[in-house]
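User: Hi! Is it possible to get a structure for several chains at once, not just one? Here's what I have:
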Amino acid sequence: QSGLTQPASVSGSPGQSITISCTGTSSDIGNYNYVSWYQQYPGKAPRLIIYDVTNRPSGVSNRFSGSKSGNTASLTISGLQAEDEADYYCSSYTTTTPVIFGGGTKVTVV
Amino acid sequence: QVQLQESGPGLVNPSETLSLTCSVSGTSIKGYYWTWIRQPPGKGLEWIGYNYYGASIKYNPSLRSRVTISIDMSTNQISLQMNSVTTADTAVYYCARPVSTRTEDALHIWGQGTAVIVSS
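Assistant: Yes, the chains can be modeled jointly so their relative placement is included. Here is the combined structure:
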């Protein structure tokens, strides 16, 4: 099964909002409300920032929000800050694997 | 405080078996889907598989024939074995625990990762 599709890069200015898309199929995102998002800095382990499409773990800023429509999930970062510059990965439960990841999106704060 | 610590050889010869251990502290092994993930240099994350304390074990179909994930509850360790490795298996390997006992994905607690190079 192929991975989820994410844009390779997204950029924004401090204070702006950006949205990262994550496109799957009816076998994963479209069929389950089990989409997660991870933030990863270079050389560090990923950090869970969104799970079950919209939930934030304790300690994660409310500037991060998630949503889903059909086979596409989205992560929105509001009030973009320099510290948000990182790689972001989506994942979804699937009918087969059972978990697949997106290819990752590099967020640049310009 | 929950902590995961991966360990294993940093270098493995092609065609041999890779063996990694994840030592768990601060949480019970029971009830969670203990998961291994890897990340090749400069690339994205790949889900390897999980072991739900022996009651349910699932693997990525692309790796299923070469991978075994086991749990030793007496030592609070999760192990990963991958046989017949090639250079394509060079990666940082992470163990992780989901956010709750009801969750198979949503990996909340991660180890720091251990780098493995497959080379002769």
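Chain A touches chain B at residues 1, 3, 34, 36, 38, 45-48, 51-52, 57, 89, 91-93, 96-104 (CB under 8 Å). The first strand of chain A starts at residue 9 and ends at 12.

User: Great, thank you!
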